[in-house]
Amino acid sequence: MYFSVRNLKKSFHKNKLVLKNLSFSMNKGEILSFVGESGSGKSTFLNCISGLENIDSGTIILNEKILNGKGKTVRAQDRRIGHVFQDNPLFPHLTLIKNILFNLKKIDKKNFDEVITVSGLKNLLTRFPHELSGGEKQRACIARAILREPDLLLLDEPFSNLDKHIKKDIVEYVEIVLQKKKITTILVTHDIKNILNISDKILIFKEGVLQQYDSPEKMYCNPSNCYCGKLLGDLNELFINNKKFFIRPEHIKIVDKSNFSIIVEKSIYQGKDFKIKANHQNHEFYFYSTVNYKSSEKLYFKFDNSDLIYFDKDCENYFT
Ligand code: ADP
Ligand code: MG
Fold first, then answer.
1. CATH says 3-226 is which class?
2. I need a labelling partner for 148 at 20 to 30 A (CA). Which of 82, 127, 265, 317 fits?
3. Residue 189 in contact with ligand 1 by CB distance below 6 A
4. Confidence category of residue 204, pLDDT binned at 50, 70, 90
5. Which DSSP symbol is given to 85?
6. Residue 199 region, left (φ>0) first, then alpha (ψ -120 to 50), else beta?
7. CATH class of 234-317
8. Which candidate, 33, 66, 64, places its Cα nearest to that of 185?
9. Tens-place pLDDT, residues 1-39
10. Domain limits of the chain?
């Protein structure tokens, strides 16, 4: 494996592990999104990888080089890892190009032109940071990291301080630049919705414990526990033979008659179709439709049994 983390443990205070025993690995060129709530240890995890924090125990191997393990620790500056933070400091007294090239020993002109062009920074190079928007500054910080051709790129919530419309542009930019440059990347976020499309794999993390590590499709259709399932989108509850199942809104089909009924509460227009909020046995129930159903309308629905999701007792919540 190109990048692997084994049994990583990290605490700041005695007996309180922030990372409890984290193991996973990645192939070269993959984009992994690391998703967890605020305070769950995401930044700590990235800091351990880039060497800004010491770890309690475990092994970190990147590109066949042991960064932590076997009694040794490689210094942060020797790790060939790019680390981009939520609020990236640019030197205020330097132009954009000087900021980007700061301390860069070797410049490959072709690579530079490509990264600057795809980052949309070509016409901004002589500007100072105060003459740039938040999105432009963030693109510059990502470009600065990419130009150093890191073995691994770490992005710590790079979208979270940006306006919604800029966020979309930046997500697209990140997708394009990472695919073009084939850079192995870990993108940390608390908001899974933005990154579903750009991730090869998603790792869901809660209270220091890995909950699931899978492709977005697999995670959406086969969540490993209820926590992961709900994080990815609406889950409708269904009781069949006194057993609780869940089903995604996309898998609901409205029919003339069936054993399953709902009462429409409201239709939410969303451009292409309607998201219908309904009530099924006193639970919120969602599905999509091209029909604008009226509230209080009674409808019947069906589904394929293969689309039902079931969580056994261990998976009713999340893994601790
Ligand atoms: P996230 O990035 O997911 O929001 P963090 O990794 O920043 O979470 O924090 C995880 C936990 O570790 C929090 O409880 C935080 O207070 C604690 N923590 C983070 N950094 C330090 C530090 N340098 N010293 C002590 N506690 C810290
Ligand atoms: Mg953080």
1. alpha beta
2. 127
3. no
4. very high
5. -
6. beta
7. mainly beta
8. 33
9. 999 999 999 999 988 999 999 999 999 999 999 999 999
10. 3-226, 234-317
